[in-house]
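Exercise 3.2. Students should predict the tertiary structure of the chain below and write it as structure tokens, then compare their answer with the key that follows.

Predict this chain's 3D structure.
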Amino acid sequence: MKVLLTGTSGQLGQAIIKSKPSFVELIATTRREIDLADTESCRRAVREHQPDWLINSGSYTAVDKAEDEKELAMRINAIAPKVFSEELSQTGGKLLQLSTDFVFDGEQNFPYTTDQKKNPLGVYGASKAAGEDAIYEVLGNSNQALIIRTSWLIGAVGKNFMHTMIRLHRSQEEIRVVSDQIGCPTSTLTLAKACWRAIEKQKDIEPNVLAPQIHHWSDEGSASWYELAKVIGELANRIGIIEKQARVIPISSKEYPTRAKRPKYSILDCTITRQFLDLEAIHWKESILNVMKQISPLNPK
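Answer key:
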């Protein structure tokens, strides 16, 4: 099986590469090889490699910056998936697209199911929602596309909340962190495993059966950014990544204004996906500890 991967330098891309099954011929592309902002680059890559699967883990993820770079965010998060879908519809290949909890507005206080109406609050979420719609428009009546929404992604490499908090725990006496936004941290390790399992499961789908196209995957449980910051300090101190913990102080979103509005509650209901993939849930605290174990003690990342 030939799999073409975008976003290889990102935290999820790296986890997907490391967890590659033995039966997969993985083509891990650089940005020079596939520029997601360049339509022709996307078309050319599919035509040249003609993959059985394309995992699009590349994305424009600068949530606040996207408010000022709407065109670029849309090119990467919406137009590129549409182009991939169009080309794969011709070659017969399949697309695995990574999406986000930010497609929802966060106004409800119970987990979002895959069939709920999308209502993004900002440009980033709108661009990812538009990408989903474009994929469904092209490949919606086939088994050639899977969309996996996830939340609060954390990996051992790349930029993410965990690395920021580790740095702040080292350098600050206290850290002020938002406590009124609720979601679920997700390890790149568990998400990468879910991606590969989804591809394997697709082989078992009967030709005349339309499989679910949208899935939700996050680790188990829920947390505020404040709680997550505290746990990161505790775990990092326990395993020797940091020598001390800063005091974490809860604040409201109003006290930490951002360019883009975030959903207040973005827990994803993963029940159906876990049953479909036959994967057990791992609590986010355990998942984060597993990620941290990949980081050398006192590594200044």
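Discussion points: The CA atoms of residues 21 and 196 lie 8 Å apart. DSSP finds nine helices and twelve strands in the chain.
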